[in-house]
Design a protein that fits this description.
Elements (H helix, E strand, L loop, with lengths): L18 H7 L12 H13 L4 H14 L1 H10 L1 H8 L3 H7 L1 H4 L6 E4 L6 H5 L9 E5 L16 H14 L6 E7 L5 H4 L14 H18 L4 E4 L6 H7 L5 E3 H21 L8 E4 L3 H16 L4 H5 L2 E5 L2 E2 L28 H8 L3 E4 L9 H10 L4 E4 L11 H7 L5 E4 L6 E3 L2 E3 L2 E2 L6 H11 L6 H12 L4 H5 L10 H19 L12 H10 L7 H13 L1 H4 L8
Parallel strand pairs: 1-3, 2-3, 2-4, 4-5, 6-7, 6-9, 9-10, 10-11, 11-14
Antiparallel strand pairs: 7-8, 12-13
Helix pairs in contact: 3-4, 3-6, 4-5, 4-9, 9-19, 13-14, 13-20, 19-22, 20-22, 22-23
The chain binds NADPH dihydro-nicotinamide-adenine-dinucleotide phosphate (NDP), pyruvic acid and magnesium ion.
């Protein structure tokens, strides 16, 4: 709701507002006269979506709705999250990014270019919102499994923050989608006349580091306590190392993905009945997500009784050169060294197929960006070797998934415990509906952000990330567990985010990084009520604004008729 002296804000054009509110907001006459129920508004939006057969057109319609009628957008998304998430997030956001500069209509976030260095603070001052609590920042250099998309990657911060609002009740105006325009290694983009970023080669790692140093200071000076989520950087390890213990920040691809996959693995490992010491995990992909996930699972295996060395040795990581080994002959990137094998007796395994045959894994994890990499032959063997093979093709968007749900089931005789990064449809088999899990960090990052904001944590500790995973793994209803699900029903995501946020808050308190004194002594029930009371709820927003305006326009409360403009 805008103050009386300000021009109307996007939320003010909501047709659910009463005449009184419209007059107060000065939108009276600017929107059609009918005062509409939330259901009528939603049914119009659903009809508009139905009329658009292509997902990308639905994505564009929803983007424009978010810009012009923000609360209606979030009502629609929250109430239909299962249908809307694939449109505003993966897989459709992948096309949204690929076509970003071609489809551009309206500003949806903040762009800061390399040429702005030295003046980053003044660019931040142009952001129209005063109280920003969270930002998702990317340089666009590894967008999903689609490679370097430069500033076209803006769809990712926009999409992730939309999920923060819809799934965890962060207020829309407290979110900042942030794109760092640091050049792109993508030549075809640089040559595209419609590309809207700087047409320069990507800056060097050192130049990017200096830029990020300035950005981190500027962000926290302008919005003290802001939560900073790093997303889809090609090599995000140095930034996490540098800023992790110093700022309230985390890396979603390393830590958020690690947590969400750990939650699924905890449930899956229990289902297999195979003790953790006998688990053998082949990871296709040894990048930020691969290594991040493997490290989280190492911590779980250690909590289950293995030594660190025993836990580490349960993992075989595969990259473009094959199995990561000490004697492969290339200089290993720093982040791969921890998992590098020394038990290969001088033999190098060049392909995933060779590694799978060599290891005979219980777990096959895909974080490689390579669609279809889990071949029918590999899946068949996984089914032969294991009573319940764990198969997680996690690369996004859908076309980059290492296998489909149908293939994983079909080739393992319907025994696979499955989760993918992007959604797949359920499949009917033998009169039973088989439902795939979605191992996507969207199940944890909203709760990590909410818990961090509410506890006013100064940093995001490893224990907070781990707590997000264990909280998620305990959030399944008994009916979901009995159906063999690894993740809870997406429609319950707001409740799940509350559970995750509470776990994060308690871990922050245990680590002593929290600053919110008023909740320190709260028990579970009281804390849950408090967390819920802090969440933005688009379905009660109309009523909240109504009451606020009533309060402002009621002369007995205010002492004047300031709200009436007619
Ligand atoms: N489900 C989820 O929630 C998430 C999914 N992801 C997905 O995971 C994927 C990877 O992300 P991320 O780890 O950040 O990306 P990175 O670029 O950091 O890592 C990709 C890894 O895959 C390897 N790789 C790429 N191509 C091949 C190939 N042809 N053969 C063998 N290995 C290959 C790379 O090898 P090399 O090191 O030699 O270059 C690298 O180790 C993306 O598709 C992303 O969408 C990411 C985060 C969350
Ligand atoms: C989901 C996500 O963060 C990714 O694919 O990069
Ligand atoms: Mg990501």
């Amino acid at each position: 709701m805008s103050a009386a002296h300000l021009p109307p804000a996007p939320g003010d054009y909501d047709t659910s507002h009463s005449t009184t509110v419209r007059k107060y907001n000065r939108t009276y006459g600017l929107v059609p006269p009918a005062v509409e129920s939330l259901d009528v508004q939603a049914s119009r939006c659903l009809k508009q979506l139905e009329r658009r057969p292509q997902s990308i057109d639905k994505y564009l319609y929803l983007s424009s709705l978010r810009s012009t009628n923000v609360h209606l957008f979030y009502r629609l998304v929250s109430q239909h999250i299962k249908d809307m998430a694939p449109l505003i997030y993966t897989p459709t956001v992948g096309d949204g990014c690929l076509q970003w500069s071609h489809n551009y209509v309206q500003p949806e976030g903040l762009y800061i270019s390399y040429s702005d260095r030295g003046h980053i603070a003044s660019v931040l001052h142009n952001w129209p919102q005063v109280n920003v609590e969270i930002t998702v920042v990317t340089d666009g250099s590894r967008i999903l499994g689609l490679g370097d998309l430069g500033i076209n990657g803006m769809g990712i911060p926009v999409g992730k923050l939309s999920l923060y609002v819809a799934c965890a009740g962060i207020r829309p105006e407290a979110t900042l989608p942030l794109m760092l325009d640091l050049g792109t290694g993508n030549k075809s983009l640089r040559e595209d006349p419609l590309y809207m970023g700087s047409r320069r080669e990507k800056v060097s790692a050192q130049e990017e580091k200096e830029f990020l140093d300035e950005l981190m200071v500027a962000l926290t000076e302008k919005w003290p306590g802001i939560v900073i989520q790093f997303e889809d950087f090609k090599n995000p390890f140095p930034a996490l190392e540098t800023y992790g213990g110093k700022y309230t920040c985390f890396n979603d691809d390393i830590q958020g993905t690690g947590a969400v996959v750990l939650a699924g693995i905890i449930s899956a490992v229990k289902r297999t009945g195979v003790p953790v010491k006998d688990q053998r995990a082949v990871f296709f992909g040894a990048g930020s997500a691969g290594v991040g996930v493997a490290k989280q699972i190492v911590e779980y295996f250690m909590r289950e009784g293995l030594t660190e060395d025993e836990a580490r040795r349960c993992f075989w990581l595969v990259d473009t050169k094959g199995l990561v080994t000490n004697d492969r002959g290339d200089k290993l990137a720093e982040h791969k060294i921890y998992f590098s094998r020394d038990d290969n007796a001088g033999k190098q395994y060049k392909t995933l197929e060779e590694v799978v045959d060599h290891v005979r894994p219980t777990i096959l994890m895909g974080l490689s960006t390579i669609g279809g990499a889990f071949t029918p032959d590999m899946l068949t063997k996984m089914g032969q070797w294991n009573e319940h093979p764990i198969i997680f093709p996690l690369s996004n968007p859908s076309a980059n998934s290492e296998c489909t749900f149908e293939d994983a089931l079909k080739h393992t005789n319907y025994k696979a415990l499955f989760a993918s990064g992007s959604p797949f449809a359920s499949i009917e088999h033998d009169g039973k509906l088989e439902t795939p899990g979605q191992g996507n960090n969207m199940y944890v990052f909203p709760g990590i952000g909410l818990g961090t904001i509410l506890s006013k944590a100064t940093t995001i500790t490893q224990s907070m990330i781990y707590a997000s995973a264990t909280s998620l793994s305990t959030s399944l209803h008994p009916s979901e567990v009995s159906q063999g699900w690894l993740y809870p029903e997406l429609a319950r995501i707001r409740d799940v985010s509350v559970i995750v946020a509470m776990g994060v808050i308690k871990a922050a308190q245990e680590a002593g990084v929290d600053r919110e004194q008023s909740i320190k002594s709260m028990g579970n029930e009281e804390l849950e009520k408090w967390v819920r009371s802090k969440m933005y709820d688009p379905t009660t927003e109309t009523q909240r604004v109504e009451e606020e305006v009533q309060g402002l326009t009621d002369p007995s409360k205010w002492g004047g008729n300031r709200g009436s403009h007619l």
